Request: fold
Amino acid sequence: MPTRIPGRVVLSSAVMMVALFGTAASVSWGQHGHGRGHQAAEVCSAEFDKVVGEGRGFGLAFAADQNGYPGPLHVLELKDQLKLTADQEAKAQGLLHAMFAESKPKSARLLDAEAKLRRLFADRAADDAVLRAAVAEVERARGAVRLVHLLTHLKTRDLLTEDQRRIYHEARWSGR
Reply:
């Protein structure tokens, strides 16, 4: 059974990650990579690796979630508020299981592609052609993971009534 996390905690975590990226970029830009900016970016990168490695989306489905297409993990976290029926809960569990079964191997490919990109620079092996190919592979892998999550959000939306979708959206995006 998934751990219940209030929508505002999830949203706060996402905002923190965006803030960390923003802080890392602004501090690094001003200091040419010295200081807290890179530390914040490393923390965010480690969190990305952990979350994506588990098959979760790390915000890749925000476009859906913010606009009324909930994901199964969060639907299950809010099952009491949503008053899910036993059938809805079972179907959400099925979607979650299927999503993770598909996203975990694709997430592993994404993390591998990211690691290869970093190694190009660490090994001083980056040149124009190799870099273009490595970035294209990262983006193909990221797109594959993102698509799994977004398609699952489409399917999950259909499980809920209009009232449940409203309650979900308020719980996840209104800070209630």
